[in-house]
TrEMBL record:
Transmembrane segments: none annotated. Belongs to the GMC oxidoreductase family. Its cofactor is FAD. This is GMC family oxidoreductase N-terminal domain-containing protein.
Amino acid sequence: MTEAYDYVIVGGGSAGCALAARLSEDPGTTVALIEAGGRDRHPYIHIPAGYARILGHHRLTWGYRTEPDPGTADRALDYPRGRVWGGSSSINGLGHVRGHPSDYDLWAQKGCTGWGWDELLPYFRKHESFASGGAERGTAGPQPVEHLAETPPLLDHLAAAARAIGLPVNADMNGPQREGFSTFQQTRRGRRRISAARAYLHPALGRPNLHVIDQALALKIVVAEGRATGVAIRRAGVEQVVAAKREVILSAGAIGSPQLLLLSGLGPAADLAALGIPVLRDMPGIGANLQDHFIIRLGFRLASHRWSANRRIAGWRLPIEALRWALRGDGVLTWSPGMFSLFARTAPGLEAPDIQINGGPLSWAEAPAAPGHRFAGLRIGVPESGPGMTLGVWQCRPESRGAITLASPDPAVAPRIAPRFLATEADRACALRGIRLARQWMAAAPLAGIVAGESRPGPAAADDAALLDFARETGGTVYHPCGTVRMGGDPTAPLDAQLRLRGIDGLRVVDASVFPDIPVCNINATVLSVAEKAADLIRAG
């Protein structure tokens, strides 16, 4: 059985939802969106703080795990990616953050013509609706963006402490000044998360030329005579081909897009042949260049529950917060894991921040340390009994590069994910500078009498060796994988600057996998901007 559409998009995440909505604006164009998951009906998706309950959900995520690696003390890490309408925008922490302008100018310098800051800024403006914005902010886009619904009193003191260590305080974290302290902005409208599915896909569902094919596993790209002509899928146990009259567009994310290309015979020839996959084109760059931010979570004791929300989400008080969320649209259930952010340059000669620190006035109970490890993990979502705060420290532009490779020719088997965190000396040195910056910030005079001490890793971890052990034994992903099907001007880049796969006609990739390099920040806003620009490129032919 074959159905035919002008455009067949694989993946209903941020990029796929945006593309489906934009390409179907032309009533003469037919669009199919293939999504492995189902509708975004789960209630925790729509409650901002619900992320803590669904990151490992068996139905809403892919259940990925990384390969054990020395950079993570030989631990296999959970690697959540959304498997539901909206993809990871339905399960993420709602952070809406633009990269530093130099992020995109560096893309352009690597041969990604048309992808510099000046060219991308109109698409950042196009996708967002931010009522408080200045001249560089969008006010009429499909993606609502709002300031925090509740600003905890601790944040004013954190801002003062940032000033005390020489960093500015910014009213708009996505304004002209990136470095310094600011409160987070969220992909939210009132009390509810607004994922890419809610912002783009749902409003477009009434169009007769848009067809969503969900609960469908993409098996491979169908290629005939050097051209992508469709996508083979399995749905309810039945295999069929969804044919593309113009283009196949992969928007399955930094894990799913390279996996599907590899399954289709596009990738490193030796690796494919070893799995018995017929090689259509030897492309060593597919699956390479995996980048992600590595977060190290520090814990601090606070002097009083006045400053912390730990008690507000425990026991009989949690139902009160639920009622507050339902009736007033504020309170802890509107919170993100990141309530505030501190961007800073910690080495001379940098044009952009190399460290981001974010967090909120919540701290989590500890999990037992793994055998042979010094430091305990965290039970994210289970608050400590005492008042506390968590700071997440990460390097903005890591040098370390990992890879996505196939574990099996079976499309239902997860690929191997090897981020290779902390693989370089420069990355390890930057992680140490970030931890020490966080400690300096918490020791600043405006926090005296509020921050009562460090609980994780604690003052006993004073030297570089102990701090690196803590980072390796407890750190993890910030859920920002990208770069695995990069665009570039060099022939080793799988994609050209039009996001077309080299050597195969009618096939593009549009998602975080196309990034040549990771931006300094959370990546969802950049993904939406890439998708908006890609829609114009596709319509222009």
